[in-house]
Design goal:
alpha+beta; 6-stranded antiparallel beta sheet; globular; about 375 residues
């Protein structure tokens, strides 16, 4: 069946090769992940000057650190001398400088070259020019976002604008005070599937009645197949007998006090392209950060954020965490079930989207447009 022969209720997905071809993935790294704002680390984890984390963004390793003036800075994690990886650990702390383990070229927390063997005999070497290559940095929702592009896109439009477009106003997400929350739990998932399959899954709820029994008990409207993201400004309402957004419907923890009355007992979901999911409920926020590493390998780090008093007091958040942990496992299992079939001749021209999934077609168009020259 050709695309022109599709029934009017169906639209075509991307072809199977879009999810498996290493050449397409390399182009996505170049044209998407290395050109857009990328949510990298939780800012509060860089808690003192010299603390650092390294993150894979597209094809680059990025070094993110807190400088002596208490600002967050980011650099390509590459020594300017012979290209050695400067920091090999995922996280750590240095006292004053970063030193390359190969030839001991040494850089300050501001990225400036401060020392190297025989550097005084090379007075023509400019210490700023031969410092670490800087990466653009912004902070929002308590996370550090980086962009490798020479000229980054407008953050307010591409990132904050995604939340505004979904919720209807920028104030709607600000009421959750996400930058002041604390990480109550973090789980890292190794998903053997293409990053686009994960996004497509998150954007629709046609599958919810089939694989998410716990979620549909709390959010019964999801059993009808329409995701909250299908409607601008809509939050899925809790079941009448659900006291909180927990695995058994029991009460959660302290509500975020600035959440408005019309946001209470509702769940909102936001996709911030290319790699962030934000889930909002009255007493906590769940943030997924995807790190695509290969065409068939994506790491997802999921943070459950609660009021600081809740975390510092050691309150039991296990029932809140367990609900979306089960959703994650169910979703990622489904994505991994699809990934091998992307190479099948049956999926050569792609699959189809039913009406409740048609909004995913806009995501496919966005990917196609980004990869054009």
């Amino acid at each position: 069946m050709t695309e022109t022969e599709l029934p009017s209720s169906l639209i075509r997905t991307l072809p199977g090769s879009s999810y498996t071809d290493p050449r397409i993935f390399a182009r996505e790294q170049e044209k998407i992940f290395e050109q857009m704002w990328f949510c990298a680390v939780r800012a509060s984890e860089l808690d003192k000057p010299g603390s650092f984390q390294t993150v894979q963004v597209g094809r680059e390793s990025v070094l993110i650190t807190r400088s002596r003036d208490d600002t967050v800075k980011a650099f390509l994690n590459i020594c300017r001398h012979r290209g050695a990886r400067l920091c090999t650990e995922e996280k750590g702390e240095v006292k004053r400088n970063f030193q390359c383990p190969y030839h001991a070229w040494t850089y300050g927390l501001d990225g400036k070259l401060v020392a190297a063997p025989n550097l005084t005999s090379m007075p023509d070497v400019d210490r700023t020019t031969y410092g670490l290559v800087p990466v653009h940095v912004r902070e929002w929702l308590g996370y550090v976002w980086v962009c490798l592009a020479d000229e980054p896109p407008f953050f307010e439009a591409d990132v904050i604008g995604a939340a505004t477009e979904r919720l209807g106003s920028p104030e709607a997400i600000e009421r959750y005070q996400t930058e002041g929350l604390a990480v109550g739990r973090r789980i890292r998932y190794e998903v053997k599937a293409n990053w686009k399959l994960i996004i497509e899954n998150f954007m629709e709820c046609y599958h919810c009645a089939t694989i998410h029994p716990e979620l549909t008990e709390v959010l019964p409207e999801f059993a009808g197949g329409y995701a909250a993201q299908y409607y601008v400004g809509h939050g899925a309402e809790f079941a009448d007998d659900a006291k909180g957004f927990t695995v058994d419907g029991s009460a959660g923890v302290d509500r975020i006090p600035t959440v408005s009355e019309d946001q209470d007992r509702r769940y909102y979901a936001i996709t911030v392209k290319p790699q962030v999911f934000i889930n909002l409920v009255p007493d906590h926020v769940i943030v997924h950060r995807m790190f695509p590493l290969a065409a068939d390998h994506t790491v997802v780090e999921c943070d459950w954020l609660f009021l600081k008093d809740v975390v510092e007091a050691g309150r039991d958040v296990s029932r809140s965490v367990e609900l979306f942990h089960r959703v994650n496992v169910q979703d990622f299992d489904a994505c991994e079930r699809c990934q091998p079939a992307m190479d099948s001749r049956a999926y050569r021209s792609g699959g189809v989207l039913v009406p409740s999934e048609h909004h995913i077609g806009a995501f496919h168009e966005w990917v196609t447009d980004r990869l054009r020259d």
